[in-house]
Design brief:
The chain has about 475 residues and is mostly helical. It has one domain. The protein contains 22 helices and no strands. Helix 4 packs parallel to helix 19, helix 12 packs across helix 14 and helix 21 runs antiparallel to helix 22. The N and C termini lie far apart (about 50 Å).
Length: about 475
């Protein structure tokens, strides 16, 4: 009977893959732009569907969160084009970056979108390599579940409470002060001043301490079994921090963390449908407010009632603006497709990221220069005084070219898949440490879609690996007593 269930699921996955492959082939042959716009949507649905078939998890899962942001960043604008929705400043409407006269035409966009879809699929296949079927996992861990519950779970939770409690005491005042400082700098000098110039705050030891802030919050929550007291403490601290970051113009890092925090609550307690509807309404209101923040964050001025009235009188929809703005990350790979992967004159960024993850001083041993790919692209290559950003797909293409980029994306998928799958593993082993690795790890990697590997690895190392080591050491000490 079990083999029949396994076979039926396999058939579903196989049929969906064949259908997607046929449509993909038709897009590659005819290169119809509208067909290719829909291709990315079908690829996204395929990824989520096959993941759900294999894991039998609820739709709102760590992989769903990551893949949704991945698609929004790299394919957000084509999703709108599929519904014949356009904006005046969309990709292809003018030059991508000032100082370079390149304007992508429809043929360029077709080729770029096909490549993004291929990257999406090979990334998904990499993730699926480390995704075990639910049935096999429950059978394998049936005995361990009782063992961990009685002999391991309580002590590891106590260890988490001790370690993350200490980290909370250290990191909370620093995080709140940093957020307040960012708000003041952004108000006086504009949002870009936080990243470039004498007021930049995104480097040094403070940044490393900030890597520990969110893991301390979620680690304390998990260590306390999501108790009412722990929720009040964690939500209050995070709420204050998020509001300050929002007022400084940051619409990214705290938002990712908030979505992950919501998922963590669903892990402990299933959220009824009516609450999901409430969350959706709150999200829509939040999107409208974030649109105001976007409008004023670069001006160096504060929010005013006039900003709200202008928004209400605006004919454009902030919800559609989200797709176009987040989807603007696609301009990175679009430009690199035009310029070629040979424009980067330095060492492979993946190599420098791995060697310099602990400290950039490690690169000095090998005589390798530390280059932040996003800074190089903006300041050195484009010669602009603001950040153009970067992307996971762009970095893969720059390091490996067309084919090599696809291979890198598959390897990255396999690497990130291990982290994401700890969530499923924790449900059947009942191991809180595995849950912590997923939540803290997901928070570190979720921004990778619109960034580069170096800072992602650094946050993983300091925000997840280091904390896990400390928890393990504390556990061993408790075991001796």
């Amino acid at each position: 009977m079990k083999s029949n269930i396994f076979f039926k699921i396999s058939v579903k996955e196989l049929i969906s893959f064949i259908l997607l492959l046929i449509y993909f082939g038709a897009c590659a042959v005819y290169k119809n732009h509208m067909m290719i716009n829909w291709l990315g949507i079908f690829c996204y649905i395929y990824c989520i569907y096959t993941w759900k078939c294999k894991t039998k998890e609820i739709l709102f899962s760590p992989y769903f969160i990551f893949m949704t942001f991945f698609v929004l960043f790299n394919y957000g604008q084509p999703i709108m084009w599929a519904f014949n929705i356009h904006q005046a400043n969309e990709i292809g409407s003018g030059i991508l970056f000032y100082g370079h006269s390149y304007v992508p035409n429809e043929s360029d966009l077709v080729n770029v979108q096909l490549y993004i879809c291929m990257c999406m699929l090979v990334f998904h296949f990499g993730v699926m390599l480390f995704t075990k079927r639910n049935k096999a996992r429950t059978t394998d861990r049936k005995y361990n579940e009782f063992f961990i519950t009685d002999n391991y779970k309580n002590k590891i939770k106590k260890s988490m409470r001790i370690v993350t409690g200490i980290l909370l005491i250290i990191t909370t005042p620093i995080a709140i002060y940093s957020a307040m400082f960012n708000m003041i700098v952004a108000r006086l000098y504009g949002y870009n001043a936080l990243y470039y110039g004498e007021h930049a705050t995104q480097a040094g030891y403070i940044q490393i301490i900030m890597y520990l802030f969110y893991p301390a919050l979620v680690g304390y929550l998990i260590g306390c079994s999501n108790s009412n007291k722990s929720r009040i403490i964690v939500y209050s601290i995070f709420g204050i921090y998020a509001v300050l970051q929002l007022l400084s113009g940051d619409r990214g890092s705290w938002l990712y963390s908030l979505v992950i925090l919501v998922w963590l609550q669903t892990y402990y307690k299933k959220i009824p449908l009516r609450k999901y509807i409430k969350y959706i309404i709150v999200c829509i209101v939040g999107i409208y407010f974030l649109n105001i923040v976007t409008a004023v964050r670069d001006s160096g001025s504060g929010l005013s009632s006039l900003d709200f009235s202008n928004l209400l009188n605006n004919e454009s929809s902030p919800i559609l603006d989200v797709f176009f703005e987040l989807g603007g990350t696609m301009n990175i790979i679009t430009f690199l497709f035009h310029a070629g992967s040979g424009i980067y004159p330095y060492t492979n960024t993946y190599l420098t990221s791995i060697l310099g993850a602990v400290s950039s001083r490690g690169l000095n041993i090998f005589g390798i220069k530390q280059i932040l790919i996003g800074d190089w692209f903006s300041q050195e290559y484009l010669k602009i005084n603001w950040g153009a950003g970067f992307s996971m797909i762009g970095e893969a293409f720059l390091n490996g070219g067309y084919v090599g980029g696809l291979i890198y994306m598959a390897l990255i998928g396999a690497f990130l898949g291990i982290i994401i799958n700890y969530a499923n593993s924790s449900k059947y082993s009942n191991n809180p440490l595995e849950l912590f690795i997923t939540v803290a790890g997901l928070n570190a990697i979720i921004g990778f879609s619109r960034g580069a590997l170096y800072l992602t690895l650094k946050e993983l190392l300091y925000g997840t690996v280091l904390v896990v080591i400390c928890i393990k050491l504390c556990y061993k000490i408790l075991n001796r007593t």
